[in-house]
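Q: 5-adenylylsulfate reductase-like protein, please. Structure only.
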Amino acid sequence: IRIDSLDQLSLEKIGRPSANENHGDTEPESCPFSWARSPENLLRQETYLALATAFVVLRLLYLFFPTLLVCIQYAWRRVIQNVRLWSLLEHPLVYLKRIIQSVYRLKEPCKRSNLQEGAMNARAWASKSLATVSIGEESTSRAIHQ
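A: Structure for 5-adenylylsulfate reductase-like protein:
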């Protein structure tokens, strides 16, 4: 066996497709609907149909793009006119005020509790004074009206 003949034989085998390999590229798809085929096979088998479709899509885009652009610009102008600078700053300012309030609450918790205690004391004082007024003598304003 010569090495030159082996090399020549192996090169021929590599260059030729074997009978076991199945190449779906060369045979047409058996799908009855042209729109259901893969885009590669559709482009390969129905080149004119693919080119005509691309032409129609590009032509429609060419015709409707200026109108679409004008509509988008009009809508954008209306949005910009309605948006004020202050409305853009409102939400961050509200959040900032809330943060500042929470910091103050954390800073002075005893002051808040003193206020609550004062409110409880005021309630107790008011209930005591009302009790003494109702138990005590008749007031002078009542005696005058009778």
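A: Brief note, in case it's useful. Residues 110 and 116 are 10 Å apart (CA to CA).
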